[in-house]
Every structure is written in structure tokens, then in C-alpha cells.
């Protein structure tokens, strides 16, 4: 008897494929933070100004956030294997260019290329996972592993960046990408089959232009607000352009014969709740990574390597919780009780972080919070990734996967701009009423961090309430994607 599984050339090698997808996902996620640790060394080497330093981060975020929907649709139309391999090789080439950079301009160009190829790679990886694992039990395990990798990747980037910068050189924070990308591309070329899509409608050019430009304006608007303020004319103009273009995009998608983002993908309550959960987590998580990193290094005098090790309990909590949830719990409960609970735990963890002091201790003031936040993220990420792709037709799995990453990227841009602005304002306000000095400066910095942690906790509380209202009770729908549709 011929079954869908025996017809699927990926079935027998599905766990090996998961390994390749996991490596690719880890590479994309950690690359968003690994360069942060290397920035001071890169700045000293290449001689660029403090004002230009943010562009090393922004140059990656802008194309990545704005091109994800296009990247997802390309993988649907032209094949997930092709998009996946092209994304890996392009990302590797861009990383090599950045590692060899002898000027600020070349480094920024390399980071922009990394973001563009990441926008092709990330949705292809998640959609490959979605269509390769269709058995509910195996799907839970696979998404648990994937969610754990996505959740811990940022902290792994901090640790790896610290080790490479201290032991070798900042350039190895870029060169190390080749260690991930090239073996993954070679393995993917052998393990994956190109199965042409039965349908290849024309690309929605009006939708592509409005979505890409609108997302670009939105992400850049938040980045510009971080450096130049929320009332700056360019910041306000970018937000207006983003709102107009994204509104036009939605109207175009409702009428288009072959839309870039079919509205059926996002109007489902579970998928909408999953996208909102990822955006909320993207906003709140920056309160952990950015400002806790500053606190550990600048206040407690941790080295970059010690800082990376300090985040490991959170990594372990994310991994263990994600795998447990997706293998033992999600299939019985569905995402509704899990995601809001995870956001609630993350809120408690961030609220506890507000206890930090200038002379505080890691074990007493930081460690309990990291464990709680890790458990919370594990409850959010794994169900959100699976919920965002559950019940999606094969021809839409790439763009549905892209929406997960787009939500997280937009959330990250919001979080970086909002929390940085609040920290700067709180820190300067604290200093104004006191006699300047090293002790006051340290106290002001800690005060600013606690403000960020309180706001992050509040964001998670709001996220918990809204996802509780959006998500449907009951288990997730069975995937519509048959394994043989993987391409």
C-alpha cells in the first residue's frame, strides 16, 4: 500500500533534516546578538564613530525585517530547498565579507547582505519543518527542539561572541558563521529534494512593494527613534509612511488574485495569537538581553565570557521547557493555557530583576529571574512556532512561517527603541537631582535598567491577556500540508 509517508522522499531522513534546519536557525538567531559583543573591538579596529555604531545592528535588522514576507513567498513559489540552500550560501558569503572588512562601509554592507539572505533562509527553514513533520507526536518533538533553539539562540550568541572576541578576534564573530552555514548547505543539498510546486502563480508585485517598503519604514522608524527621538521629523515621517503603506498592502491583499500574504493565513485566531505572542516576546526579551548584559558587565564587572555563561541557566530552562511542552503537553491542551502562562512567568521574572543593586549578587538578584524567564519563554516559543503553521495549506507555509519571524523582528525593533529611550531618560533624570560622581552614575544606570525591566514585565502582562483572548481553547488543527508537498 502506498501512503503519503512512503511517497515522501524526506520521510526516512526527517530527523537528519531537523538537525540541518536547527543549525540554520541557530545561525540566524545568534547572529543577531553575537556581533553586539564584538562592537567595541570592531570600532577600535576600524575607527568608526559612536554615532555610526548602531548601523552595525540596524543594517542587519532593516533588510531582515522588511524582506521576510517576500522570502517566505519565494520559498513557496520556487522551492523550499532552493531558498534554504541559497539563503545559507549567501549568508556565509556575506559573513566572510564582513569578517574581511577593512572599512566601516564594507562591514555595514556585509551586515545588510546577511539580513537579506537571512530573510530568505529563516522562513524556508520553518516551512520545511512544518511540511516535513506531520505526525502529531513527531511534530511536537520537532517543534519543541526548534522552539528551544530559537529561544536560546540570542544568549548563545552572547556567549560565543564573548569567547571569540576574548580568545581570538572580533572578526571571528563573523567568520564563525561559515562553520554553521557551509556544513548545513552541504547536508541540505544531499538530504533535501526539490519537489516543484504544483502551482506557481505570478508574484504579487504591488503587494511585495508595499509590504517591503512599509516594513522597511516601520523598522527604520523605530531604529531612528532610538537615536534621534520619537518626535524627530524623520521618525514621525517614517511611521506615517509605514502606516499608509501597510494599510494599502492589506487592502491590496484582500483583492489580489494571488496575494503575497493571503488573509486566510493571519485571520485564524490561533495563528494571529501566535504572531502576537512572538511580537510581544520580541519586545520584552530585549529587556533581558541588552540591559542585563550591561548590568553584568558594567556594574558587576563580568567579562564577556562570564556574561555569556551567566545566561546559560536561562538557555537550559528554555530547552527543557520547550521540549517538555511540545512532546508531552501541547497535544493535550493546545496553546491557549501555555502561551499566556509563559508570558506571566516571564513578567514575574522581569519584575524580580528590578531588585538588582549596584553591589548585588548574581545568585541572589539575577539567577532566579533567568530561570523563570527561561521557563516562560519555553512555554511561549515552542507552541507559538507550531501554532503559527498549524492548519496552513502547503502553498502558504512559507509566508506563514515568514510572519512568525516578521512579528519577532518588528517586536525586537519596538523593544530596542522603546526600552533604550526609557532607560536613557530614567538614567539622566536620576542624575539631575544628585551630586555627580561615580557612585551616582552607577546608581543611575541600575535605576535605568530597573525601569526597562518593569516596562518589559508590563508588556508581558499585556501579551498574556491579549493572547488569552485571541487563542482558541482546544488542541491545534492537524496540518493540511501533506509530506509529499514539501519542496
TrEMBL record:
<protein>
    <submittedName>
        <fullName>MFS transporter</fullName>
    </submittedName>
</protein>
<feature type="transmembrane region" description="Helical">
    <location>
        <begin position="143"/>
        <end position="164"/>
    </location>
</feature>
<feature type="transmembrane region" description="Helical">
    <location>
        <begin position="84"/>
        <end position="106"/>
    </location>
</feature>
<dbReference type="InterPro" id="IPR020846">
    <property type="entry name" value="MFS_dom"/>
</dbReference>
<dbReference type="InterPro" id="IPR036259">
    <property type="entry name" value="MFS_trans_sf"/>
</dbReference>
<dbReference type="InterPro" id="IPR004638">
    <property type="entry name" value="EmrB-like"/>
</dbReference>
<dbReference type="GO" id="GO:0022857">
    <property type="term" value="F:transmembrane transporter activity"/>
</dbReference>
<feature type="domain" description="Major facilitator superfamily (MFS) profile">
    <location>
        <begin position="17"/>
        <end position="475"/>
    </location>
</feature>
<feature type="transmembrane region" description="Helical">
    <location>
        <begin position="308"/>
        <end position="326"/>
    </location>
</feature>
<dbReference type="GO" id="GO:0005886">
    <property type="term" value="C:plasma membrane"/>
</dbReference>
<feature type="transmembrane region" description="Helical">
    <location>
        <begin position="15"/>
        <end position="35"/>
    </location>
</feature>
<feature type="transmembrane region" description="Helical">
    <location>
        <begin position="273"/>
        <end position="296"/>
    </location>
</feature>
<dbReference type="Pfam" id="PF07690">
    <property type="entry name" value="MFS_1"/>
</dbReference>
<keyword id="KW-0812">Transmembrane</keyword>
<feature type="transmembrane region" description="Helical">
    <location>
        <begin position="203"/>
        <end position="222"/>
    </location>
</feature>
<feature type="transmembrane region" description="Helical">
    <location>
        <begin position="338"/>
        <end position="356"/>
    </location>
</feature>
<feature type="transmembrane region" description="Helical">
    <location>
        <begin position="362"/>
        <end position="385"/>
    </location>
</feature>
<dbReference type="InterPro" id="IPR011701">
    <property type="entry name" value="MFS"/>
</dbReference>
<feature type="transmembrane region" description="Helical">
    <location>
        <begin position="234"/>
        <end position="252"/>
    </location>
</feature>
<feature type="transmembrane region" description="Helical">
    <location>
        <begin position="170"/>
        <end position="191"/>
    </location>
</feature>
<keyword id="KW-1133">Transmembrane helix</keyword>
<keyword id="KW-1003">Cell membrane</keyword>
<keyword id="KW-0813">Transport</keyword>
<keyword id="KW-0472">Membrane</keyword>
<feature type="transmembrane region" description="Helical">
    <location>
        <begin position="410"/>
        <end position="431"/>
    </location>
</feature>
<feature type="transmembrane region" description="Helical">
    <location>
        <begin position="112"/>
        <end position="131"/>
    </location>
</feature>
<feature type="transmembrane region" description="Helical">
    <location>
        <begin position="55"/>
        <end position="72"/>
    </location>
</feature>
<dbReference type="InterPro" id="IPR005829">
    <property type="entry name" value="Sugar_transporter_CS"/>
</dbReference>
<feature type="transmembrane region" description="Helical">
    <location>
        <begin position="451"/>
        <end position="471"/>
    </location>
</feature>
Amino acid at each position: 500500500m502506498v501512503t503519503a509517508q512512503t511517497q515522501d522522499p524526506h520521510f526516512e531522513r526527517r530527523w537528519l533534516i531537523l538537525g540541518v534546519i536547527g543549525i540554520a536557525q541557530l545561525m540566524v538567531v545568534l547572529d543577531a546578538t553575537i556581533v553586539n559583543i564584538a562592537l567595541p573591538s570592531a570600532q577600535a579596529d576600524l575607527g568608526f564613530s559612536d554615532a555610526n555604531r548602531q548601523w552595525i545592528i540596524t543594517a542587519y535588522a532593516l533588510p531582515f525585517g522588511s524582506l521576510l514576507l517576500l522570502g517566505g513567498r519565494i520559498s513557496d513559489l520556487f522551492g523550499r530547498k532552493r531558498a534554504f540552500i541559497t539563503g545559507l550560501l549567501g549568508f556565509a558569503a556575506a559573513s566572510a565579507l564582513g569578517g574581511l572588512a577593512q572599512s566601516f562601509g564594507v562591514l555595514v554592507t556585509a551586515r545588510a547582505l546577511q539580513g537579506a539572505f537571512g530573510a530568505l533562509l529563516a522562513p524556508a527553514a520553518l516551512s520545511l519543518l512544518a511540511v516535513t513533520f506531520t505526525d502529531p507526536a513527531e511534530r511536537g518533538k520537532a517543534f519543541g527542539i526548534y522552539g528551544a533553539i530559537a529561544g536560546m539562540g540570542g544568549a548563545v550568541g552572547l556567549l560565543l561572541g564573548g569567547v571569540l572576541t576574548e580568545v581570538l578576534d572580533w572578526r571571528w564573530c563573523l567568520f564563525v558563521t561559515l562553520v554553521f552555514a557551509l556544513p548545513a548547505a552541504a547536508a541540505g543539498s544531499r538530504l533535501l529534494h526539490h519537489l516543484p510546486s504544483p502551482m506557481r502563480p505570478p508574484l504579487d508585485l504591488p503587494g511585495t512593494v508595499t509590504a517591503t517598503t512599509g516594513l522597511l519604514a516601520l523598522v527604520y522608524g523605530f531604529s531612528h527613534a532610538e537615536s534621534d527621538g520619537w518626535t524627530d521629523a524623520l521618525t514621525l515621517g517614517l511611521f506615517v509612511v509605514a502606516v499608509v503603506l501597510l494599510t494599502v498592502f492589506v487592502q491590496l491583499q484582500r483583492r489580489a488574485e494571488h496575494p503575497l500574504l493571503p488573509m486566510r493565513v493571519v485571520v485564524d485566531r490561533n495563528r494571529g495569537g501566535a504572531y502576537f505572542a512572538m511580537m510581544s516576546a520580541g519586545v520584552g526579551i530585549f529587556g533581558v538581553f541588552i540591559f542585563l548584559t550591561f548590568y553584568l558587565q558594567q556594574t558587576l564587572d563580568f567579562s564577556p565570557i562570564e556574561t555569556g555563561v551567566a545566561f546559560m541557566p536561562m538557555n537550559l530552562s528554555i530547552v527543557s521547557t520547550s521540549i517538555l511542552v511540545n512532546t508531552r503537553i501541547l497535544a493535550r491542551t493546545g496553546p491557549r493555557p501555555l502561551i499566556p502562562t509563559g508570558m506571566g512567568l516571564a513578567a514575574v521574572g522581569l519584575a524580580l530583576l528590578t531588585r538588582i543593586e549596584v553591589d548585588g549578587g548574581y545568585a541572589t538578584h539575577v539567577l532566579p529571574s533567568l530561570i523563570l524567564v527561561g521557563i516562560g519563554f519555553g512555554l511561549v516559543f515552542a507552541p507559538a512556532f507550531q501554532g503559527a503553521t498549524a492548519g496552513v495549506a502547503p502553498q502558504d507555509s512559507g509566508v506563514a512561517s515568514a510572519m512568525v519571524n516578521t512579528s519577532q523582528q518588528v517586536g525586537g525593533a519596538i523593544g530596542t527603541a522603546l526600552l533604550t529611550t526609557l532607560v536613557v531618560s530614567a538614567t539622566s533624570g536620576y542624575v539631575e537631582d544628585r551630586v555627580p560622581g561615580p557612585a551616582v552614575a552607577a546608581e543611575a544606570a541600575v535605576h535605568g535598567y530597573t525601569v526597562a525591566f518593569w516596562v518589559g514585565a508590563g508588556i508581558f502582562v499585556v501579551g498574556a491577556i491579549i493572547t488569552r483572548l485571541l487563542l482558541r481553547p482546544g488542541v491545534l488543527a492537524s496540518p493540511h500540508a501533506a509530506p509529499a508537498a514539501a519542496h
